[in-house]
């Protein structure tokens, strides 16, 4: 299972939101590239970056900072937030981003999703952000009533190679993932799933791995010291430098 430390960007800073609420923000760093380098120096080989401003505005806002993050980290970087056209997608690929996480556009624009499946099938996952059993879109400000599981099954049949599943109501609370939901996903969705929201400690990572979840995005637990990154990576079997 891959571990993805999270860097969420808002107003040029590293932040965490609680349950996706922009009025419940905690700032954890003023220098995103420095934070990325910190994660790299502590053993991370994968990184998850979200342009929160871009998710709300519908276009990238922190793209220059993301370029700096990619250069500083030097590993696998996946990016989401405001990627709603092929031009934006290509600009991120040109900047060295390894994978894009498509959210609103993938859900609301079938034409764009179809084009990405045709042209870049291995370079994007779809972000499924769940709130009140619906699909949260447009920076988590609106909720689409379609069933998230049905959407994932249909998209995987169309050719989507993987998903990031975020339980917004658990995000930032360190309350543990929705294991029952992930169990259903692994039985139903025939594509890799990365878990996001509420992951707090090694026991959570252990159970997700036993369930066959392909990756875990970890944010607040790292920033607050509840989880030690080096210990978590060693637990998951990442090779040490040297």
Account of the 3D structure:
The protein contains eleven helices and twelve strands. β10, α8 (about 180-190) and β11 (about 195) form a beta-alpha-beta unit. It is of the alpha/beta class and about 240 residues long. The longest helix has 11 residues, at about 65-75. The two termini are about 20 Å apart. The chain has one domain (about 1-235): TIM Barrel (Alpha-Beta Barrel), CATH 3.20.20.70. Strands 1-4-5-6-7-10-11-12 form an eight-stranded parallel barrel, surrounded by six helices.
Low-confidence stretches: none
- Helix count, per DSSP? 11
Task: Tell me the quaternary state.
Answer: single chain
What summary fits the major beta sheet? 8 strands, parallel, barrel
> What is the straight-line distance between the termini?
22 Å
Provide the gyration radius in Å.
Answer: 16 Å
Give a count of the beta strands, DSSP E runs of length 2 or more: 12
Cross-sheet strand order for the largest sheet: 1-4-5-6-7-10-11-12
Number of domains: 1
Assigned CATH superfamily: Aldolase class I
What name does CATH use for the topology?
Answer: TIM Barrel
Give the rounded overall mean pLDDT: 94
* Fraction of residues in helix: 25-40%
Reconstruct the topology from this structure.
Layout: E1 2-10, E2 13-18, E3 21-29, H1 32-41, E4 46-51, H2 52-57, H3 63-73, E5 76-80, H4 86-94, E6 99-102, H5 104-108, H6 110-119, E7 124-131, E8 134-137, E9 142-144, H7 148-158, E10 163-167, H8 179-188, E11 193-196, H9 202-210, E12 215-218, H10 220-223, H11 229-235
Parallel strand pairs: 1-4, 1-12, 4-5, 5-6, 6-7, 7-10, 10-11, 11-12
Antiparallel strand pairs: 1-2, 2-3, 7-8, 8-9
Helix pairs in contact: 1-3
